[in-house]
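Researcher: Structure for this, please.
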Amino acid sequence: MYGKFYSNVSEFYDLCYSFLLKHEAENNLIFGILDALKVDIHAYDPTHDPVLILIYDNSEIVLVSIRTPPYNQIISLTSNLKSIPVLVDLLIRNNHEISGILGFKKGAQVFNELWKVKKGKKSVLYMNERIYQLKEVNRDIQNRYLFESASEEDKELLISWGKEFIKEIHVNAPHEQILRNIQRMEVIIPKSIQRKDVFVLKASGTIVSIARTSRGTPNGQAITLVYTPPHFRYQGYATELVAKLCNLVLKSGKKFCYLFTDLANPTSNSVYMKIGFQPVIDVDEYRFE
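Model: Predicted structure, token format:
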């Protein structure tokens, strides 16, 4: 078993496409990141090239791993856990320093323990997450409010809410990560408005909730940036917004919608299941210190 680095995103994507597609929902994050990198290799950071790795058993791919510095190492789903030590050793031999690992629960645990021992690091389990997949929206969701794509005049409000969203979901993250992601909102929101992939729900003409589509896969689309300010919560706004957005995605020709949830937030998990999302797999994120 051996690992190999790649520098050409399109070549890498073509090589691992079939492997990732076998478990599209579980690998939707990698699919989505690669989709963005094919358009702009520096989509996530203008100062670093992405790290693209395939682990082979003979000529068969058994693990896909990517990193867009300074973000975490990400691993695909694999049934061959022996590929994880090969990845760890490859990164260490090539003097890679990483901030953390994100992947399916067992794989992330194995990577975390190996990295700590081999690098003499400490780690913290930063977040337990769950990937959900939706094939059909629950028809019982109420249709009461105006749903539309955000306009240019909404930009400053959405940037502000995007920043609040980052502060909430990354409350325990290192300060530099929070600051970096907050600053990205000033880029992401205007581009999303131009592409018409960020949406709002309005009650009596007032925006009460936002969400956007992101990270496309061959047959699906991720839903991200679902945010309702505290003073508008518990009125069903996010439920209706996400349901309508998922219907829009499915009507566009996609077969699935995906999203990640923090398992520490039982409210959001129950809301998404009410809409029609079904659990796929649990994902852990460890940070190294």
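Researcher: Any notable elements?
Model: The chain has two domains: 2-121, 134-281. The radius of gyration is 19 Å.
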